[in-house]
């Protein structure tokens, strides 16, 4: 598919349920993962099931995808969706392939699901993977100050939350190299659960029983907007699982906090669109452009000076 064909499929802009169907959409990533990766121009070397910490009595594991092309010295840590109750890091193989072909080290990390542990265990697991990545920056061939986080649907909530709570002691936990910084250089969020924008948030999120409104607010990424690194959001306009307004509203929050941010919406595209290889390629290119402009080689653009052809 040519870039012109891809551009016809995409409509850029910002826009202004669900329950059981949520996990069904997300589980498709597992089936599509290897097929999408096989289509990438360069296949990454994969190191599977590296232990990075413990969640209770369970070893937490991650997969490292090293690029087959020259590395950008940047790692992206990915978190799967599944309504906080299902899904696996193994379903992310298709998401990381095109980013690896662009030179990123990609890490697909495990977190405890709702049936295994209640909040804040999930964000403790996310922070542990960030700490492991920073602690192993040399062997990964990355700059420890160039760690980016990415999340898909429910995993998007975790990515956004980690981006907003860097080094906040109440969310750090102690599993996996405690005391190491959890600072992030950027965030990628795909059809992310941002809170109340998804009608299943209050029923599916692993909040401990009896939580009050303050606890729910404290578990919402927008509460910490002023702390975010540069953040890019992707959302399908035909998403009936997590409505596009979830990302649209979050973009407004980030821009109000003066965070470098942008939202790309795709016309006719549903939830969990990373099942479609051409959209994986497209969003990888958009994410790469954003990271190049805001994180790797920051630049500004002069305003349009007006004028026109002389009369």
What is the architecture at the second tier of CATH?
3-Layer(aba) Sandwich
Q: How far is the first residue's CA from the last residue's CA?
A: 43 Å
Globular, elongated, flat, extended or rod-shaped: what is the shape?
globular
Query: What portion of the residues fall into strands of 2 or more residues?
Result: 15-25%
- Output the structural class: alpha/beta
Rounded mean pLDDT score = 88
Highest CATH level, the class: Alpha Beta
At the third CATH level, what is the topology name? Rossmann fold
Spans where pLDDT lies below 50 across 5 or more residues = 1-41
- Number of individual domains: 1
Give the beta-strand count: 8
CATH H-level superfamily: Alpha/Beta hydrolase fold, catalytic domain
Task: Specify the helix fraction band.
Answer: 25-40%
Q: Which strand order spans the largest sheet, edge to edge or round the barrel?
A: 1-2-4-3-5-6-7-8
Nearest-angstrom radius of gyration?
19 Å
How is the quaternary structure best described? single chain
SSE run: HHEEEHEHHEHHEHHEHEH
Largest sheet: 8 strands, mixed
Can you count the helices?
Answer: 11
Description:
The chain has 311 residues and is of the alpha/beta class. 36% of the residues lie in helices and 17% in strands. The protein has one domain (3-296): Rossmann fold (3-Layer(aba) Sandwich), CATH 3.40.50. The longest helix has 20 residues, at 277-296. The termini are far apart. Mean pLDDT is 88; it is low at 1-41.
């Amino acid at each position: 598919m040519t870039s012109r064909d891809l551009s016809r499929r995409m409509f850029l802009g910002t826009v202004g349920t669900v329950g059981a169907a949520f996990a069904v959409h997300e589980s498709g990533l597992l089936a599509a993962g290897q097929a999408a990766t096989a289509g990438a121009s360069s296949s990454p070397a994969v190191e599977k099931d590296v232990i990075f910490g413990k969640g209770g009595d369970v070893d937490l594991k991650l997969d490292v995808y090293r690029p087959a092309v020259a590395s950008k010295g940047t790692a992206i840590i990915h978190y799967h969706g599944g309504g906080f109750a299902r899904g696996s890091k193994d379903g992310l193989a298709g998401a990381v392939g095109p980013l690896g072909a662009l030179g990123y080290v990609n890490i697909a990390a495990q977190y405890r699901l709702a049936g295994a542990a209640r909040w804040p265990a999930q964000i403790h697991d996310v922070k542990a993977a960030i700490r492991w990545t920073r602690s192993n920056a040399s062997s990964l061939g990355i700059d420890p100050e160039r760690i980016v986080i990415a999340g898909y649907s429910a995993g998007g909530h975790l990515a956004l939350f980690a981006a907003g709570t860097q080094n906040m002691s109440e969310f750090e936990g102690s599993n996996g190299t405690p005391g190491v910084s959890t600072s992030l250089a950027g965030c990628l969020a795909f059809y992310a659960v941002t809170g109340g924008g998804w009608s299943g948030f209050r029923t599916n999120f692993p909040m401990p029983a009896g939580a009050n409104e303050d606890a729910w607010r404290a578990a919402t990424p927008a509460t910490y907007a002023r702390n975010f690194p540069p953040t890019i959001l992707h959302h399908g306009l035909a998403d009936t699982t997590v409505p596009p307004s979830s990302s649209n509203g979050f973009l407004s929050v980030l821009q109000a906090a003066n965070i470098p941010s942008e939202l790309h919406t795709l016309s006719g595209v549903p939830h969990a669109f990373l099942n479609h290889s051409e959209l994986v390629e497209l969003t990888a290119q958009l994410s790469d452009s954003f990271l190049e402009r805001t994180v790797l080689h920051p630049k500004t653009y002069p305003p349009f000076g007006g004028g026109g052809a002389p009369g």
